[in-house]
Amino acid sequence: MAPGFFLFFALLTLASRTDRDSKPLVARMEARYRSARTLEADFLQRYLENGREIRSESGVAYFRRPGRMRWDYQAPEKNIFLVDGKTAWFYVPADHTVTRVPAKQSTDLRTPLALLAGEMKVSRVCSHVESSPETPNREGNSVLSCRIREANHSSDRHSEANSQTPDRILFEIAPDTGELVRLLVHDPGGIAIEFRFANWRFDPPIPDVMFRFSPPPGVAIVNGELPVEDAPIN
Fold first, then answer.
1. Can you list the alpha helix ranges (DSSP code H) found in the chain?
2. For a tag on the chain, would you pick the N or C end, based on fewer CB atoms within 10 A?
3. Which helix (H) or strand (E) holds 83?
C-alpha cells in the first residue's frame, strides 16, 4: 500500500519552507488525475530488504470513479486485487481462494491508491504532506512524504492490525506533469514495498464488469484481512 514513507536542526529550520513548497505539487497531481473518469497504468511492485530486491511482480492497474480499482498481476503469477467501492477482494487462481474484506477496513498497502478513483483529494489519505530528502529514482522528480490518516475501526482486531501498518508513504511525482511515478512504503516488519508506474492512460474505455468480482465455481471465500506476511506474495 514509501515512507525516513511511509530532525536535525538544519532540517527543522527547513520544514516550514518544504511544507509550502509541496502544496503546488500536490495540487498539480490532484488536477492531473481529477479530470479523468478512468485510468490505466503499467506497474512494477518490488519487495526490498536492506535495499536489496527479494521479489518483484508486474501487471496492469485500472481505476474508475467512484472508488473502484483493479490490479491484474501478470508475472510471475496471475492474481487479482480488486476494490469494487465497498469490498476489497484478493483472488489467487492457483490457490482457488479469494479473500474479501470491507474496503474501509482494509489495511492493504494498495488501498490508499483508491483516491485516484475518488475525489482525488490527497487530504483524504494524508493528514500532512511535506517534501522528503529521499532521492528520486528519476532526476528532476520530487518526493513527498505523506502521513497517513488513522482509520477508525469498529473492532479490536482491526485496531490491532491497523497499529501494525505504516504511518507514512513516500510519493515520487513528475513535477512537470503531476503524474505519480512511484510509491514507497517501509513495512514495520522491515520490508520496503515499492510501486512503480509507467504509461498512464487517461480516460481509456474500461467496462464496468472489470470492477465487479464474482468468485468462480469451486473457489473458497475467506472473510477477513490477509495476514501481513501473506500479503500478495505468491
1. 9-34, 156-163
2. C
3. strand 79-83
C-beta neighbour count of 204 within 10 angstroms: 13
Residue 22 is predicted with a pLDDT of 83
DSSP string, 96-151: TEEEEEEGGG---TTGGGGGGGTT--GGGTEEEEEE--PPPSSTT-EEEEEEEPPP
Please check whether residue 166 is in contact with residue 187, taking contact to mean a CB–CB distance below 8 angstroms. Answer: yes
All structural domains of the chain = 9-218 (2.50.20.10)
Residue 162 and residue 145: Cα distance in Å, rounded?
19
Residue tagged 536492506 (cell numbers): 50
* Residue with more model confidence, 5 or 117: 117
100, β-bridge pairs: 89, 223
* Pairing mode, strands 68-75 and 180-186: unpaired
E strands in 150-231: 168-173, 180-186, 191-202, 220-223
**φ/ψ bin of 30: left (φ > 0), alpha (ψ from -120 to 50), beta (otherwise):** alpha
How does pLDDT run across 108-132, given as a tens digit for each residue? Answer: 767 656 667 666 778 777 888 888 9
Give pairs for 115-120: CB < 8 Å, separation 24+: 116/33, 116/39, 116/63, 116/69, 116/180, 117/39, 117/63, 117/64, 117/65, 117/66, 117/67, 117/68, 117/69, 118/65, 118/66, 118/67, 119/34, 120/30, 120/33, 120/34
